[in-house]
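Weekly structure sync, notes
Attendees: PL, DS, HV (note-taker this week)

Item 1: ChbG/HpnK family deacetylase
DS walked through the input record. Source organism listed as Methylocystis hirsuta. Sequence as pasted into the shared doc:
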Amino acid sequence: MVENQIVAVCADDYSLSYGVSAGILEALDAGRLTAVSALVNGPRWPAMGLELSRRSRNADVGLHFNLTLGRPLTSMPKFAPNGEFPPLAKVVQMAFARRLPMDEIRAEIDRQFDRFEAVMDRPPDHVDGHQHIHVLPGIRTALLDAMEARKLGGRAWVRDAGDGLHRILARFANARKALSVLSLASGFRREARRRGFSVNDGFAGFSDFHPSFDYARIFQSYLRAPGRRHLIMCHPGHMDEDLCKLDPVTITREQELAFLLSARLPEMLEKRGLRLGRLSQADRNLSAEQAAPQ
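Item 1 (cont.): predicted structure, written out as tokens:
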């Protein structure tokens, strides 16, 4: 491990509810996040997106592409016949059976990109997927196609949700989830890099979202065996009525936020010779080093 190695911490689910968004903005203002991933298909996105655009100069802001929560932005009579996205298990099943209506999914991808850009007035710094749906067969290719069409190569990074087996086993905590996603993400990193998109090297943040667990202790495991471009996802926020209606992950969001705002996070990082940083900034620094005369 390199001294002062950069670790990126990304808060997922921005704009899921007002409470979640407000909590993420608190952590962002405190300098404890270096990336935020936004859900854009919900009614809170336009207002909360404008607030994020005013306060995100020191973080990468990305599209949290969504096909499993809430309502689509486009007509999807085959994929979402009742007007609501299907659950994750059904999407995974359809992806591996090659039964996804790709014409509908491509249209939804474009609409979510459009809605992000309409509010932020710029393309996303990075792209990932709610419940990691962006790594699924078919969806991954359509998403990378859309990014290529928007000329995001060299400008936006994508999340590789599948870490190395040795790193997952070294962390041990929530290894079952990490291994499941590693299986789903097989080949994703190779395809993304072949098409000119940078990806993180190292990924952690899997949780059982159980309120009785000590999140600080769990977060400490995320720092074991970091990759060279290590990315940690988190789900901080305040619990509110909207959140309780939309998502089963509630109390633990408060616990994650409390940890991020505490002195324990910088202490953990310093002890391990790590520091918070943006993956987009790391990419620019690397490009500058490679371009400099030898």
